[in-house]
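Q: What would this chain look like folded?
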Amino acid sequence: MSTKALVTGGGGFLGKAIIKRLLDRGWDVCSFSRGDYPELRALGVEVVRGDIQDASAVSAAVEGCDIVFHVAAKVGSWGKFEDFYGANVIGTQRILDACQEHQVERLVYTSSPSVVFGGGDMKGVDESVPYPETYKAFYPQTKAEAERRVRQAGEDGVVKTITIRPHLIWGPEDTNLVPRILERASSLRIIGEGDNLVDTIYIDNAADAHILAADALSEKPELAGRVYFISQDEPVNCWEMINDILRAGGKPPLTRKISLKAAYRIAGMMEFVYKLFGIRSEPRLTRFVVGELATSHWFDISAAKNDLGFVPKVSTEEGLKRLAEWLQTPS
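A: My prediction, written as structure tokens:
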């Protein structure tokens, strides 16, 4: 009998990569998203449209599944708290409730290292690093609350859970990081000294980690409730990586700089103006983004290696080569 998996946010960058791996395994796959994705239907995926906050819609999607990959989230550094809370916290609770209702034993949850980002450098930290007392954006704040609930459910035996924290996912078909960098190429500036190191992860490696987590929940149920950082396992200079992505897209590298103090001040002014006039779109710069771009944040992934058997199979160099080929292929 075939295993059936539900992937929330299946039409997104990571969700689609996970789905392709599950299909390769011969699993039945259902995607749950707000939008319609004909390309998934063409692959034989059951595409269900609905709101992640709608308890009945989520319950119906979860029913009959053996495992859930909860990837869907509201991302970004700007917006209303209730929008982030609804999608990220209430939506995750709906998934947990539905798993309990339909006795789904396994849940792999996609979180983010930003849930432990307090504004300063994070160099080689592991999963024992605590959540900060305050957050500079609603996205990490609500993702942290959702993550706590998932971990608690796993520890309490409500459903076996593993939480994955991928950092800066990139690669071919990226709909977020790479397009933003390329679109803003002409206005980007190196913030601060430009010597900060960051972790990233290539899309294939991020998808692999989720599959390994699913297998681990079957083979090592004692891991339920655990959380894992995943990355390329080789921190890179943030601005060199941005320039590598620009180069892959045929853009010139960044050379101009702006001080951290000036960038933070400009971001604060932008936020003030956007709030004052009720502008809903995201400012070109926010204080949270400045903090992310100007600090080092790389992580010890020993736990993922030891517990999940995670090894990034695609190197950063190979990933950049594949990205360049994709960006330069006529659509």
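Residues 85 and 152 are 18 Å apart (CA to CA).
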